[in-house]
Amino acid sequence: MTQGSTDATPDETAPPGVNPNVPHSARIYDYWLGGKDNFAVDRAVGEAMMKAIPGMRYMAGENRKFVHRAARDLVAKEGIRQFLDIGTGIPTRPNLHEIAQQIAPETRVVYVDNDPIVLVHARALMVSSEEGRSEYIEADIRRPEAIFDNPVLQETLDLTKPVGLTLIAILMLLADEDDPWDMVARYRDAMPSGSIMAITHPTADFNPAEVNQAVAAARGAGMTFQDRGRDEVARFFGDWELLEPGLVPVSAWRPDSPVDDPEAAYYWAGVARKP
To answer: Under a CB-based contact definition with an 8 Å cutoff, are residues 249 and 262 in contact?
Structure first.
């Protein structure tokens, strides 16, 4: 990628705090999903990763479908009425709270992300039902205590009752040397008994050659992008009980219809309950 291909064009006006010449995962993901809230640099990295993995848009779509299925089941089958969504990304309808509140209008959701452009759209698009509540915190996944101490979270969620914690396609942005397993353990420790955690994570287990090329493309653009194998992803759940069907390819987690090739989307997905 040349410098000219990644510079923001004159008509790409960035909100305050957003550097349109530095790629961001939320905006790249938005590009894969067909959104318009991205810049030339995001599209360049997104295209480079799509060149490595031609099915990248399909994978992004399967990841979103998992969010919908998990939110639906956590509310309808597990009785969850409040969610903490870390690494929200740019809002894409239907959002988690919309799925949840269709079933239980009183559901409360706190979204967390560290990209200012997400904040701009969150205020406009994440409108809650009258009975429930939907809030947004601009914060970093690496600082769990700061998130839990945030007044917005404390006013919205009751941490004495079960919470649905969602970490969707976000842990890949943390390098091994950051010890993401310890970080996730701090989130688990803050959750009350009966809470449920949902995780998706990209993996090279299904197609090492394509994923390795995609990882190289992301790192070449200065981004952290870490795929992980099944055992490494399983470690994030600690001693929590995995719900059926366990840790499986993302398309195979309680699909709404039969899936021809579950391994066509290179993500592991699992949902687990705190004892």
So the answer is: yes
**Whole-Å CA distances, 233 to 39, 75, 146, 236:** 31, 24, 24, 6
Q: Is 259 within the bounds of a domain?
A: yes
**What is the torsional sign of CA 118, 202, 247, 234?**
negative
Residue 49 lies in a domain: no
Total tally of structural domains belonging to the chain: 1
Instruction: Give CA–CA dist 25/185, Å, rounded.
Output: 23
How much is the average pLDDT of 170-178?
96
| Inside any domain, residue 254 | yes
Write the pLDDT tens digit of every residue in 203-216. Answer: 999 999 999 999 99
Tens digit of each residue's pLDDT (9 = 90 or more) over 72-101:
999 999 999 999 999 988 877 788 999 999
Residues whose CB is less than 8 angstroms from the CB of residue 19 and which lie 6 or more positions away in sequence, other chains included: none
For residue 11, pLDDT over 70 is answered with no
Structure tokens at 46: 């997104």
CATH number of the domain that residue 87 is part of: 3.40.50.150
Place of tokens 């366990």: 246
* Among the listed residues 11, 87, 89, 7, the one whose alpha carbon sits nearest the alpha carbon of residue 43: 7
Cβ–Cβ under 8 Å, residues 90 and 65:
no
Whether residue 43 is contained in a domain is answered as: no
* DSSP conformational letter for 77: T
Q: Whole domain around residue 156: which residue ranges?
A: 56-273
Q: H-helix or E-strand containing 112?
A: strand 108-113
